[in-house]
Queue: 2 jobs
Job 1
Amino acid sequence: MNHLYQYSTMGALVGGLFEGTFKMSEVLKSGNYGIGTMDGLDGELIIIEGKPYLIESNGNIREVDAEERTPFASMIEFKPTHTLNYKEILNKEQMDEIILEEIEGMNYFHAVKITGKFKLIKARAVKKQKKPYPKLVEAVKEQGYFDYTDTTGTLFGFYTPHFIQGVGVGGYHVHYLSDDGKEGGHVFDYEIEDVSVEMALAEDLILKMPETETYRQNDLNNPDMLKDIEASE
Ligand SMILES: [Zn+2]
């Protein structure tokens, strides 16, 4: 069985709880693949084969230290149950549909890993915020945007059922890192060229809440949360 570990929630991020609360060394114990962001909503985190990398808003990419902390991450010990191979150009929308159908995953969390050649990757990366932290809708207004063409690498992320919006982001949330470690980010569109698509359903979810004073003191029951998530994506 594949367990999905979720560290904090979208609801908390929407409310501006950007402070890193979970140590990377702890997070890495729950899986070898994952995505997230770092302290202060700093960039786009991707964990590949147990190694965490951060794509910063200026496009710089670096390895993340075990002592650094994340405010939000999703992790899985990735054991694919379905694999498909494609040697044709298909876009994100087409792939999302194919994956969802193949894995019958609409009502489950699932993980997706696409490796190989991409014709196009359209990515962005959130910018590190300063205290006092703004709400997410404000924080995402200034981001780095990157277009990569003819790139080889790993796209990894999760599907969250839309009825669980607020714990995660409903639908697909995927990050990318090229094999040379120079290109990556939060992917909002892509075109595959010659890739392998691996998938795994997560039959359960382990949700880790931050054990901090800030988390205890903030009322995150925001009636506009769903609207805010939509506006931030
Ligand atoms: Zn992201």
Job 2
Amino acid sequence: MAALMLICLLGGAHSSYGASLLKLSPDCESDSKTQRRHAAHFTFQPDPVPTQYGPTQKMNLFQSITSALDNTLANDPTAVIFGEDVAFGGVFRCTVGLRDKYGKDRVFNTPLCEQGIVGFGIGVACAGATAIAEIQFADYIYPAFDQIVNEAAKYRYRSGNLFDCGNLTIRAPWGCVGHGSLYHSQSPEAFFVHCPGVKVVIPRSPVQAKGLLLSCIADNNPCIFFEPKIMYRAAVEQVPLEPYIIPLSQAEILQEGSDVTLVAWGTQIHVMKEVADMAQEKLGVSCEVIDLQTILPWDVETVCKSVVKTGRLLISHEAPITGGFAGEISSTVQEECFLNLEAPISRVCGYDTPFPHIFEPFYIPDKWKCFDAIKRMINF
Ligand SMILES: *[C@@H]1O[C@H](CO)[C@@H](O)[C@H](O)[C@H]1NC(C)=O
């Protein structure tokens, strides 16, 4: 069952070995059905081609991750990549070709044991190497929770700065995928932002993913890098071949506006961009769209400045609303930003249920729900 699910997630007919297995599962009998489901919830719009980092190449999200890892292995002789199935390229193909290029001592498989993967990564990083661990799905990161929050996050503090595992980066596919259900669609960032000592980063696009991942790898703190899996193939941009850094803890204003601030990250940013267009077109409402990019530690200043200007804030994420990071943003803005709000801060998030399978289209915070929230704020 897990294997079949995986083949569906891979895009089925795209993968060479997936086509025959695909027919066995009624859920993914045709590729076009998968595509239709993907197309229903957002449209990926590429960013302008970056010119400042040299020549670019057309890459999707998983290829831009490969490119970042390739740069790291080439430039840092201590860098190693490990996880379940990474040696053959990983289930999402993020490490394709790297074992052949850099050898089996630097790109290697681990046993199916997330706790062991992160524990090993902590040791490797403390011993002076650059450790890049892959957890096959963010939904399966929980066996490693203790290693991350009790060991990786606290190592520097615990040793009085004698040791640290700041050169550990943990990558994991994240978020909804159209049909991933309870074990392949979760967004667990809120569990980790409660833990000082780790950084949590979620990119929205191939160009941004490469720069942010290289930042995470270079950063002197353990970093969790969640990759929106729905975009691995669907998102394509011109990505620079050379390494470049996009700074952590800086939000990006993607679109300026004066009436409502929209804050999101990862896949949801693309929903917000469509919502901003709808609000302009149907209501004449001008939205400012902010991609948080780094969830911990997050860029309070950029969000505050924007909400001071607009007086309205909508935060949206796929994860369940209760205990989700939107709540943290909402209270911080109210406490720290010294503002007169035009309307109560609004959250449009997942429901407090496991991630459903066939009801996924009703579960996700889609553009219609976000649009309704904007209408309510404007008419408040
Ligand atoms: C982490 O990597 C940096 C840059 O390569 C290096 O200077 C530092 O010593 C490393 N940290 C540890 C604990 O090995």
